[in-house]
Design a protein that fits this description.
- By secondary structure, the protein is α+β, with helices and mostly antiparallel strands.
- It has 3 domains: about 80 residues, Rossmann fold (3-Layer(aba) Sandwich); about 110 residues, ATP-grasp fold, B domain (D-amino Acid Aminotransferase, Chain A, domain 1, 2-Layer Sandwich); about 60 residues.
- It is about 35% helix and about 25% strand.
- The strands form 3 sheets. It has a 5-stranded antiparallel beta sheet with strand order 10-9-8-11-12. The chain has a 4-stranded antiparallel beta sheet with strand order 4-7-5-6. A 3-stranded parallel beta sheet has the order 2-1-3, sandwiched between helices.
- A hairpin with a 2-residue loop joins β8 and β9.
Length: about 300
C-alpha cells in the first residue's frame, strides 16, 4: 500500500443471531488486512462500542457485523456520529435492505420483480395459513436464512415451531414460494460481478443456514449454467437493486429462477445483503476471485472505499 499504514478496526461479533458468522467473517478480513500491511485492531462488539472506538482511535472501521444492529443502520449511525469512516452501506440503505418488506417496496418501484408477500405477527402466522401454500415464512429483519420455514402445498397447517415464544411476537414475512434455481450476484461499487448458482448438498432442501456455512453444505457453480440473457439480467437487476437502495461498497443480491415457468422462466429477487459474509465458504470472495481479485485485494478495495456520509 502507498503512504503510511492505516489503522483499521474490524467490527465483528455483536449480539445478533448471526454472531458466529460475523466472528468468522471478521477474523478472515482482519487476517487479510494485516497481510495487506494495515495495522488492525479486532473489536468483538458489545454495547460499550462507543467507548471502545474512542479508546482505539481507528482511521477506518471495517464493518464485518451481520444481522440486527450491525447491519440495519444502527452501527452505521454511531460511526457517522463519531465521524469514523466505515465500509459498506450507510444508514438509510442498511436500514432499508435489512427490512425485507421495505426493501421489496423499493425494488418493485425500480422495476425489479419480487415475490408477493404479507407481513404478520408470528402468532397470526402460527394459527392458520395466511397464504395459499406453498409459501415461505421468515423474519422480516434477519439474514443468513435465520428462522426460515418452507410450507409445502400439501401441509394442512403452519409449522408448529411458529407457535413458540421465540416467534410469537416477531414480525414475519410470509411470501409466495418460488420454485427453481438459487442464483446470486455481487456488486462492487457500480460493477456487477459474476452469477453463481447455489446447489444445496443432498438432504438440504434449500440454501439454509447450514447450507451456507457448513463445509460441504452447498456446491457453487460459477459461472452459473444459465442462458446468457438470464445471466446478464441477473447482473442488471443486481445493479438496479444496489443503486435503488443506495448501497455502497459491496452488496450481494439473491434470486430464484424458475426455468420451467413460461417460455422465459420467472426471475425474482429475494433480498439484498449490504454486508455479505466473508467466510471461507462465502460467495463474495468467490465472485471477486472469478473477476481476478484476491481476497486481500478485495478487503483492501473495501477499506479504500470507506467514508462517512454514505
Amino acid at each position: 500500500m502507498t503512504g503510511k499504514a492505516q489503522h483499521v478496526a474490524v467490527l465483528m461479533g455483536g449480539w445478533s443471531a448471526e454472531r458466529e458468522v460475523s466472528l468468522n467473517s471478521g477474523k478472515a478480513c482482519a487476517d487479510a488486512l494485516e497481510g495487506e500491511g494495515y495495522r488492525v485492531t479486532v473489536i468483538d462488539v458489545d454495547r460499550d462500542i462507543v467507548e471502545r472506538l474512542r479508546e482505539v482511535k481507528p482511521d477506518v472501521c471495517f464493518n464485518a457485523l451481520h444481522g440486527r444492529w450491525g447491519e440495519d443502520g444502527c452501527a452505521q449511525a454511531i460511526l457517522e456520529t463519531l465521524q469514523i469512516p466505515y465500509t459498506h452501506s450507510g444508514v438509510l440503505a442498511s436500514a432499508l435492505a435489512m427490512h425485507k418488506e421495505r426493501a421489496k417496496d423499493v425494488m418493485r418501484a425500480a422495476g425489479v420483480p419480487v415475490a408477493e408477500g404479507v407481513v404478520v405477527a408470528g402468532s397470526i402466522a402460527a394459527k392458520a395459513h395466511v397464504m395459499v401454500p406453498p409459501y415461505v415464512v421468515k423474519p422480516v429483519a434477519e439474514g443468513s436464512s435465520v428462522g426460515v420455514f418452507i410450507v409445502g402445498k400439501d401441509e394442512a397447517k403452519p409449522p408448529a415451531e411458529l407457535a413458540s415464544s421465540k416467534w410469537a411476537l416477531e414480525e414475519l414475512l410470509v411470501e409466495r414460494f418460488i420454485p427453481g434455481r438459487e442464483l446470486t450476484c455481487a456488486v462492487m461499487g457500480n460493477d456487477p460481478l459474476g452469477v453463481i448458482e447455489i446447489l444445496p448438498a443432498e438432504g438440504l432442501g434449500f440454501y439454509d443456514f447450514e447450507a451456507k456455512y457448513a463445509p460441504g453444505g452447498s456446491k457453487h457453480v460459477l459461472p452459473a449454467q444459465i442462458s446468457p440473457n438470464v445471466y446478464q439480467l441477473v447482473q442488471k437487476l443486481s445493479l438496479a437493486v444496489h443503486q435503488a437502495l443506495g448501497c455502497r461498497g459491496v452488496s450481494r443480491s439473491d434470486f430464484r429462477f424458475d426455468d420451467e415457468s413460461g417460455s422465459d422462466g420467472e426471475l425474482v429477487c429475494l433480498e439484498v445483503n449490504t454486508q455479505p459474509g466473508m467466510t471461507t465458504t462465502s460467495l463474495v470472495p468467490e465472485l471477486a476471485a472469478h473477476a481476478g481479485r484476491s481476497f486481500g485485494d478485495l478487503v483492501r478495495w473495501i477499506v479504500e472505499d470507506a467514508s462517512c456520509d454514505r
